[in-house]
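Hi support team,

I submitted a single chain yesterday and got back a structure, but I'm not sure I'm reading the token output correctly. Could someone confirm the output below corresponds to the sequence I sent? I've pasted both exactly as they appear in my results page.

Thanks,
R.
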Amino acid sequence: MVRPDRRTTLLGPLKRAHLAVRTLADGTLRPFGLTIAQYSMLRHLADNPGISGAELARLVRITPASVAGMLSVLEQDGRVERTPDPAGGRCLLARTTPAADELLEQVWPAIQWLEEELFEGVPDADRDTFRRVLDAIVDRQAELLAPRRLGPPPTEVPEPDTTPTERGPGTRPTTHEDPVSTTHEDPVSTTHEDESTAQVEERGAIR
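Hi R., thanks for writing in. Yes, this is the structure output for that exact sequence:
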């Protein structure tokens, strides 16, 4: 496999862009008492009132645990309300409060201003292409995070040499570590948070 030149890989610029946008967005929303992640959550709830935490997690593409934590904070701030599902069970359905809806109306001009500042001089056609590329990356991320897909391909473990060797008198046998029995961390089992929240976690946050 041909290794990409470090100077041409897209991961570095993509990470720097993500951090830059998040920093600028958080700074823009700070006077409103919001982070970009909280804004994204409220925006999705406003567009999909009465959905469960699990449905919201699939929508914003972060873990249910992260969604539950963010909803708890927003509920304490009076921006989200959760009620039991009429169908029964332990499921809670979330929606924005009137105060949150009013806040979103106040925040929207600031979001539009930030986007225009970031993309000043970029033609509309290039913006559309950029959005399609971002959507493709997010869709691909979901595939890569599927079970048994995370991490690099496994390397082949050589078979241990079981050929008997002759020993002279007084010679102690050499001990070889069995490579199969050596404990290695399974990259699939490593827990990943959302970042990337978050990560976006930012998909659809600035629009």
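A quick pointer for reading it: The helical segments are 11-29, 36-47, 53-60, 64-76, 98-118, 124-144. Let us know if anything else looks off.

Best,
Support desk
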